[in-house]
Amino acid sequence: MEEEDTGADPYLPYDGGGDTIPLREIPRRGSHYAMSNGGGAPSSSTHLLDFLEEPIPGVGTYDDFHTIDWVREKCKDRERHRKINSKKKESAWEFTKSLYDAWSGWLVVTLTGLASGALAGLIDIAADWMNDLKEGVCLSAMWFNHEQCCWTSNETTFAERDKCPQWKSWAELILGQAEVSRRGMYIYWALSFAFLAVCLVKVFAPYACGSGIPEIKTILSGFIIRGYLGKWTLMIKTVTLVLAVASGLSLGKEGPLVHVACCCGNIFSYLFPKYSKNEAKKREVLSAASAAGVSVAFGAPIGGVLFSLEEVSYYFPLKTLWRSFFAALVAAFVLRSINPFGNSRLVLFYVEYHTPWYLFELIPFILLGVFGGLWGAFFIRANIAWCRRRKSTRFGKYPVLEVILVAAITAVVAFPNPYTRQNTSELIKELFTDCGPLESSQLCQYRSQMNGSKAFTDNPNRPAGPGVYAAMWQLCLALIFKIIMTIFTFGLKVPSGLFIPSMAIGAIAGRIVGIAVEQLAYYHHDWFLFKEWCEVGADCITPGLYAMVGAAACLGGVTRMTVSLVVIVFELTGGLEYIVPLMAAVMTSKWVGDAFGREGIYEAHIRLNGYPFLDAKEEFTHTTLAREVMRPRRCDPPLAVLTQDDLSVEDLQGVINETSYNGFPVIVSKESQRLVGFALRRDITIAIENARRKQEGIMLNSRVYFTQHAPTLPADSPRPLKLRSILDMSPFTVTDHTPMEIVVDIFRKLGLRQCLVTHNGILLGIITKKNILEHLEELKRHTESLVTSQRTRPARPSLLGRDA
């Protein structure tokens, strides 16, 4: 049995403590709270739950950093639902209350979708404005960004449509056209935004840092982290997310938007007792909020629902699927109404390609998938190694200094290269865009365009001009820069998403490969591949498509998402026709990444922080038994138990005060050790307090009985305390010979916190969720040590060779 965790520093990892004996409710058929035979007992119409819900100082349902009991929460919800259905025919008011209860789920997801869409639009608009603020300011209207400032100008040209007299750079306003002042103001604003973001997080809401998805996955699995989805976290994360993105750090806002949406869902759930008083029901709202977060992050409502189902949700019933779909719909509708990008789209980099893909292109697409898998495996190992070093050294004690240092390096190195200086979303948009006659990007400076050819489509294989070759070198440098800085940025004490940086790395690599294949088709057009598939008079290769495929491959290599990722990308770009290349690249990246390790970046950070999370994707392949994992072991103290009729109130209170367990097995006697049931600490405490307040004669020497009938006592004996009604007569049990593969499966599918181990009805021990996680970690370390020893062991000389 395990002790409670009193709390944790938000900047320190969870140490694994706190997964204690659960607070578990069981269904009872007509059971009522009977204290003793005599006056003062509650009436038979009073249900046990009415007593258990009475507030007792110091007694809470679940403590911070503990795991909920899904079975108990489901039993509570069924009891509440039965009570409402039994009363709805009594009066019109009760019928109205039943309707309100039935529609409360739809109301809370509607409010969550509305709030998520509004906050996402606000974050997008503010981030674009503050990102342009590093370059200059609009004199006519300071609240306009660079593009909006030049919309109404009549002095812009097509070639220089981003230049207008209303927009002034800081160099022009302060020191003329000096390049040094322009770079200095860029670095100054970047450091200011980063410093302000980390200070707000450190002072007001430490939980607002990071992506939030690892913690969301852990919370949805049943873990309690008080304050992680609170109003202060929501406010600070919204503000600091804008600052962090505008600072130019190699991070994105898409992952943190899931955290923001879950904060909205958690806050609105407190308006409805159906969800505020039931942690399992609340997690259904959080699953729908996750879908809404991805919906507004990528403009992908269907992808958001699949993301919630595939990646973050632990329990996903059919009604949660419908409500997640509705929440994603409402959020996307609100974001579309706000139109933050001014292009009547939900996302910034919506593109449409006008040429099909050809069968031979599957070869480079698969190669991009291999690159994405290799990048994902490398990034996970490098980032986890750096985060582990940050936690174990003095450097991790100075989060503000670390953020300032990384922001300074990022700003200084990124400024000379236009592909690293610009906003990452703008970079992805440029890499995704296909070259046409209206494009002025350096990536589209082909010789045919420079020589004034009639149209782009007249020559299917265009020779690259000097601008394309210069852009290729800049993209190669940008790729190296993004790879290095993303490793050190993800995990800083500022809001930091990983979706956009990973997609940027893949888009850069894909665009480089696409241009290379395009030039290969031009200079070797007589090869059988190009000669067979490329038609004369039409574009043969679309480099922007390669960027899109590379972005999906790299994001899949890092997160190990498959179905939801493909749907998100084709919703993101409108490229439904290119779903086969996306599927091929994403599956290849997953296979390659799984060859180096099956866990994605979020599962790796969950394990790094020590959260009690049983991953349903991980297979248990060992042959251990329940007796090898149960507690206590031979060297441990005996299991704390209660006997059914040998305790006094004083003895019972002594056990409760001397231990911090959340529940106790009840046995027949110390001699027989035969299991009777399981009693919860909270229920025992409430029962004793209520008995003292509502009954006379309950003293310290009163006998405590967990049996159905108390024996006849002498006349001068104090009144006994009957606790049979709070005893769980059917706790989850397994035998000592049960394979751990089955035990782990039971814990995953039922959401258990503990399971008792017996042999022919005799109590032997207990297995908790924490014990299973510790056992899995021990097996993993043992396997790694065996592999290491086999690699370092010198090879024995072959007997066949010696005989020869």
TrEMBL record:
<feature type="transmembrane region" description="Helical">
    <location>
        <begin position="545"/>
        <end position="570"/>
    </location>
</feature>
<dbReference type="GO" id="GO:0005794">
    <property type="term" value="C:Golgi apparatus"/>
</dbReference>
<keyword id="KW-1133">Transmembrane helix</keyword>
<feature type="transmembrane region" description="Helical">
    <location>
        <begin position="358"/>
        <end position="380"/>
    </location>
</feature>
<feature type="transmembrane region" description="Helical">
    <location>
        <begin position="400"/>
        <end position="419"/>
    </location>
</feature>
<keyword id="KW-0067">ATP-binding</keyword>
<feature type="transmembrane region" description="Helical">
    <location>
        <begin position="186"/>
        <end position="208"/>
    </location>
</feature>
<dbReference type="GO" id="GO:0015297">
    <property type="term" value="F:antiporter activity"/>
</dbReference>
<keyword id="KW-0472">Membrane</keyword>
<dbReference type="InterPro" id="IPR001807">
    <property type="entry name" value="ClC"/>
</dbReference>
<protein>
    <recommendedName>
        <fullName>Chloride channel protein</fullName>
    </recommendedName>
</protein>
<dbReference type="GO" id="GO:0010008">
    <property type="term" value="C:endosome membrane"/>
</dbReference>
<keyword id="KW-0868">Chloride</keyword>
<keyword id="KW-0813">Transport</keyword>
<dbReference type="Pfam" id="PF00654">
    <property type="entry name" value="Voltage_CLC"/>
</dbReference>
<dbReference type="GO" id="GO:0008021">
    <property type="term" value="C:synaptic vesicle"/>
</dbReference>
<dbReference type="GO" id="GO:0005247">
    <property type="term" value="F:voltage-gated chloride channel activity"/>
</dbReference>
<feature type="transmembrane region" description="Helical">
    <location>
        <begin position="228"/>
        <end position="249"/>
    </location>
</feature>
<feature type="transmembrane region" description="Helical">
    <location>
        <begin position="285"/>
        <end position="309"/>
    </location>
</feature>
<dbReference type="InterPro" id="IPR000644">
    <property type="entry name" value="CBS_dom"/>
</dbReference>
<dbReference type="InterPro" id="IPR046342">
    <property type="entry name" value="CBS_dom_sf"/>
</dbReference>
<feature type="transmembrane region" description="Helical">
    <location>
        <begin position="504"/>
        <end position="525"/>
    </location>
</feature>
<dbReference type="GO" id="GO:0005524">
    <property type="term" value="F:ATP binding"/>
</dbReference>
<keyword id="KW-0050">Antiport</keyword>
<feature type="transmembrane region" description="Helical">
    <location>
        <begin position="471"/>
        <end position="492"/>
    </location>
</feature>
<feature type="region of interest" description="Disordered">
    <location>
        <begin position="784"/>
        <end position="804"/>
    </location>
</feature>
<keyword id="KW-0677">Repeat</keyword>
<comment type="similarity">
    <text>Belongs to the chloride channel (TC 2.A.49) family.</text>
</comment>
<feature type="domain" description="CBS">
    <location>
        <begin position="727"/>
        <end position="784"/>
    </location>
</feature>
<feature type="transmembrane region" description="Helical">
    <location>
        <begin position="103"/>
        <end position="123"/>
    </location>
</feature>
<feature type="transmembrane region" description="Helical">
    <location>
        <begin position="256"/>
        <end position="273"/>
    </location>
</feature>
<feature type="domain" description="CBS">
    <location>
        <begin position="630"/>
        <end position="696"/>
    </location>
</feature>
<keyword id="KW-0406">Ion transport</keyword>
<keyword id="KW-0129">CBS domain</keyword>
<dbReference type="InterPro" id="IPR014743">
    <property type="entry name" value="Cl-channel_core"/>
</dbReference>
<dbReference type="Pfam" id="PF00571">
    <property type="entry name" value="CBS"/>
</dbReference>
<keyword id="KW-0812">Transmembrane</keyword>
<dbReference type="GO" id="GO:0005769">
    <property type="term" value="C:early endosome"/>
</dbReference>
<keyword id="KW-0547">Nucleotide-binding</keyword>
<keyword id="KW-0967">Endosome</keyword>
<dbReference type="GO" id="GO:0005886">
    <property type="term" value="C:plasma membrane"/>
</dbReference>
